[in-house]
Amino acid sequence: MWPFDGKKKTTEKAERSCYVSVKETTEGNELIDIVTKLKEVLSSTSREVIILCVGSDRSTGDSLGPIVGTMLTEADIPFPVYGTLEKPVHALNIKKILKDIYQKYNQPFILGIDACLGDERQIGFIFLKEGSLVPGMAVNKSLPSVGEYHMKAVVNYLDPLAPAQSLNNTRLFTVVKLAEVMAKIITQAVLGEPSTRKRPIETIQR
Q1: What is the pTM of this model?
Q2: Which candidate, 172, 190, 200, places its Cα nearest to that of 77?
Q3: Buried b vs exposed e over 72-108: b needs ≥16 C-beta within 10 Å?
Q4: Average pLDDT, whole number, for the chain?
Q5: What distance in Å separates the CA atoms of residue 122 and residue 163, rounded to the nearest whole number?
Q6: Does residue 6 have a pLDDT over 50?
Q7: Which of 134, 183, 149 is nearest to 42 (CA)?
Q8: Which H or E run contains 110?
């Protein structure tokens, strides 16, 4: 979990990122750009791709990563997935998990997945960006940076005086909907087809 950086990026950096808003839509052409971008990212490397979903199921807002990891595991994507509801990757074990990954795989390409906090207008946005994510920043924890690329979703607004409360007060509905869309994006990028669903994804409203 880390705060959303609202500062302006350089043009070069902006070109290496894309986003989609779950507030507005989760179907049709709106997902094509981010799915295509992720597909290009994953197909451009010959290294072993690892998906690392960071978060804790003990906090509603921070449970996004483990929920996404569980959905991806159930979808049988052909990449190792670390961080599920059953076996979450969080502040207490992330250093050990990363050590295990680097011992098991030779120069792995890690795609990090995590939740983040922003301002109220950003809730429901999903971002795909080049570079590492730094979990724990929103709650002032010092944790190792993760990944060559990362996806993050804004689950709630950032209260600078009580960030942990912002996480705990996050609606589970919001977290689950964002997790569904993130899993859908990854599944389409990896398998070329949507994950199995019996109902359309609802948009987030506040």
Answers
A1: 0.84
A2: 190
A3: bbebebeeebbbbbeebbbbeebeebbeebeeeeeeb
A4: 84
A5: 16
A6: no
A7: 149
A8: strand 109-118
